[in-house]
Design brief:
This protein is an all-beta fold and 127 residues long. The chain has no helices and eleven strands.
Length: 127
Amino acid sequence: QVQLVESGGGLVQAGGSLRLACAASGRTFSQYYMAWFRQPPGKEREFVAAISWGGTNSYYADSVKGRFTISRDNAKNTVYLQTNSLKPEDTAVYYCAARYNDNSRYVSSFDWSYNYWGQGTQVTVSS
């Protein structure tokens, strides 16, 4: 069992930055591929970014490419999402997700491929 706890959300003006963190506990975090998803108000959950457990592969949604960066520190059991140049349309609840895989380079943008989820952290970007 893996528990995920997100932090770092808040209210920020357009153009600002936030660093989200997702702390994991329970099992061997280093062999879990991780991702961030978000759910804007009144919309479906959508993929944001993913990273392999080895940290060598990452993948981004087109809407955040060049502005967001996903990273991980396996020694701290934490995955991060650095969000820069934030836009009002980035307003959403941000969730981290995880799943075990023995392939250190595997990543996935599909929410059905993840079996552990955090409770979410709210990001609000004002115009």
